[in-house]
Design goal:
The chain is of the alpha/beta class and about 270 residues long. The protein has a domain at about 5-145 and about 175-205 and about 255-265: 3-Layer(aba) Sandwich (Rossmann fold), CATH 3.40.50.150. The chain is built from nine helices and eight strands. It is globular and about 60 Å long. The protein binds S-adenosylmethionine. The site of S-adenosylmethionine has 19 residues, from helix 3.
Length: about 270
């Protein structure tokens, strides 16, 4: 799959932080901090530079052992550079497809942000099966759910969105991606394994203050739908130009869902 740059992750992080469902995250932090004598082990899958660590420590997750897992060593190094002095970090350069080899031993929580829409059903089922065996909780924030609403509207918006949502299900190196179905599929898989699951809205609400992020997003969407979906390239150019012309007076909502799951006997 294509890599994720530090710049892109930094660009999206403020929008992600604002979008995360606060009540779910707070409930999770209380769960992690329930026993003051124990340093909970949190395994953050596809950690990038540590956005989940930043979000949860800001809400009071202290004294955690953070096992950051990513296949990109540059992102792990950046996470260590930013947090290695203040937090206990164990960095693991690993492929999350190697589920049995993931360092999940003694983990109280398996966390992730902006990850599950990239993976396949098989990956979700494999991860859920592994954590269920050891009663590890799961927090998956910011799973794209297929909703995108632009203002002002453009006649091509719906066509572009349909193509984009199809593209979100393309295999990006981890099997056919769940894309917009990720939160629903994850919830069902967790419930089948005996978890108590909560879902909450974590949509991005983007306005002129997010102009750089929206510009990247528009370019990314156009690139994703340019081939394979039969869209007229001139119309698509017009759509992109229209969207970019409204960076400073337009708005958009991009739907995400957060998932929080506790093993049944530990539900709160
Ligand atoms: C959309 S980014 C999210 C990063 C971070 N969680 C955040 O919210 O800023 C997806 C992350 O998953 C990692 N990733 C993608 N495929 C992976 C794989 N097969 N094994 C391990 N990590 C992977 C990427 O390197 C990237 O850091």
């Amino acid at each position: 799959m294509s890599g994720f740059s530090i710049n892109w992750l930094d660009l999206r992080e403020p929008a992600d932080r604002a979008a995360r469902d606060h009540l779910l995250a707070k409930q999770l932090v209380d769960y992690l901090q329930a026993d003051a004598d124990i340093s909970p082990v949190v395994v953050d899958l596809g950690s990038g530079t540590g956005s989940t660590l930043r979000a949860l420590t800001a809400l009071g997750a202290h004294q955690c052992v953070w096992r950051l897992v990513d296949h990109d060593p540059a992102l792990l190094n950046e996470a260590l550079r930013r947090h290695g002095q203040q937090e206990i970090i164990e960095d693991y350069e690993a492929d999350l497809l190697e589920i049995d080899a993931l360092p999940l031993g003694a983990a109280k929580l398996l966390s992730a942000s902006a990850l599950y829409d990239l993976v396949s059903r098989d990956v979700v089922d494999g991860l859920v099966e592994r954590i269920a065996r050891q009663s590890t909780a799961l927090y998956a924030a910011l799973n794209y759910d297929g909703r995108t609403h632009w203002s002002p509207a453009h006649p091509l918006d719906d066509t572009v969105l349909q193509a984009f949502n199809l593209d979100q299900q393309r295999d990006k190196g981890m099997g056919p991606a769940l894309g917009p179905q990720s939160a629903a599929y994850l919830s069902t898989s967790l419930e089948s394994a005996g978890y108590s699951v909560q879902l909450a809205d974590s949509a991005w609400h983007l306005g002129p203050e997010h102009a750089l992020l929206v510009a990247d997003l528009v370019s990314g969407i156009k690139a994703a739908v340019s081939d394979n979906y039969g869209l007229d390239s001139q119309l698509l150019d017009d759509w992109k130009a229209f969207r970019l012309s409204h960076l400073h007076d337009g708005h958009c909502v991009i739907g995400h869902l957060d998932v929080l799951a506790f093993p049944e006997k530990k539900s709160q």
